[in-house]
Design brief:
alpha+beta, two-stranded antiparallel ribbon, 5 strands
Length: about 110
């Protein structure tokens, strides 16, 4: 059975990641960062035509979930995808898929006679 990766109670890293990925703006940001990163936030704003406040808000969610990292260079922040985080998310989905292929007896809800 698939087991979510728990970092420290009550934080569940797997849940945090999937919640972060559950927003279309964050998916767009992650895709752009993966394709062009490390990328400055100003270039993300230009590429996606969102205001700085919206981009920053969503980047903060991705960063808290561990999906992206940032580094500062003067007044600019550059974002990169964290490959290990993708492995955790992929690993959970792989475990779920493997659970589909486990041979098991059919569940029965019949009450004993």
């Amino acid at each position: 059975m698939a087991q979510p990766h728990v970092v420290a109670e009550p934080r569940n890293l797997t849940v945090d990641m999937f919640r972060a990925l559950g927003d279309p703006v964050r998916l767009e940001l992650l895709a752009h960062i993966a394709a062009r990163g490390p990328i400055c936030v100003c270039h993300l704003e230009e590429a996606l035509a969102y205001r700085q406040s919206r981009v920053s808000k969503h980047l903060a969610v991705l960063r808290r979930a561990g999906l992206v990292s940032s580094r500062r260079d003067g007044s600019w922040a550059y974002y990169s995808v964290v490959p290990e985080a993708l492995e955790i998310a992929r690993g959970f989905l792989d475990q779920v898929e493997q659970s589909l292929h486990v041979v098991r007896e059919a569940d029965s809800c019949d009450e004993p006679a």
